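Fill-in record for Phosphoglycerate mutase.
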Amino acid sequence: MKIYLIRHGETDWNKKLKIQGQADIPLNQTGRMQAEIAAKYLDGIQFDAVFSSPLLRARETAKIIIKDRKIPFYIDDRLKEISYGIREGQSLRLIHAFPFLRLHAYFKKPESYIPPKGGETIRELKDRCRSFLDERIVPMEEIYNNVLISGHGALIRAMISVVVSLPDSYFWSGKEQGNCAVTIMECKNKEIKLIEEAIDTQSN
C-alpha cells in the first residue's frame, strides 16, 4: 500500500508568517490554486481512502484533490497540527528575534523544547502519529492500494520521524514541507517505509 501525505495549501497566516498550529484558518486563493496543481500531479493515482485533519485548510486541500470522486473520506483528530498554545496567531519573526521564547527552541533545539502554555510537546505529537498509523493504516495494507493523508507541516515531519525512528534532535532534518508538498511512504508486511520526501508538486 502506498501512502501519500500532503501538506495543505497556503493560508493568509502562512503568507503573513503567523503561527497557525491548531487555529482553524482556511486556504487563501493561492492555497486553492496550489491544491489544484497538486491534484494534477496526483491525477493518475486511484485513491481508495482519504484521511484528513479536521482543520479547514487540510480538509479543503483534500477535497480539491479528490474533486467529485466517491472516495471514503475520514476525519481524524490525530492528524491535527501540533498545538502551539498561547503562541498561536503570533508572528514567527517575533519568535526568531527573541531566543529566550520557548518556541525558539522548538525550531533550533527541538530535543529541549518545552511548549508554551496550552501547547503540545513533540513527543505528544509523535505519539498520536504513531497511534494513527498503527490503528488506521497498518491494518488496511491488504485492503487499500493507495491512501491520501491531508495534514500539516510539523505533523508530516512527525510521521517521518516515527517511520524512520529519528530522535527529537533531528526533528527538522530532511527536506522542507512546502505548501502542497507530497511525501510518499509504503506499508508492506506491517512495516511502513519512507519512499520519497517533500516532493514539490508546484514545479512540474
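KEY FINDING: Helices lie at 12-15, 29-41, 56-66, 92-97, 102-108, 122-137, 153-164.
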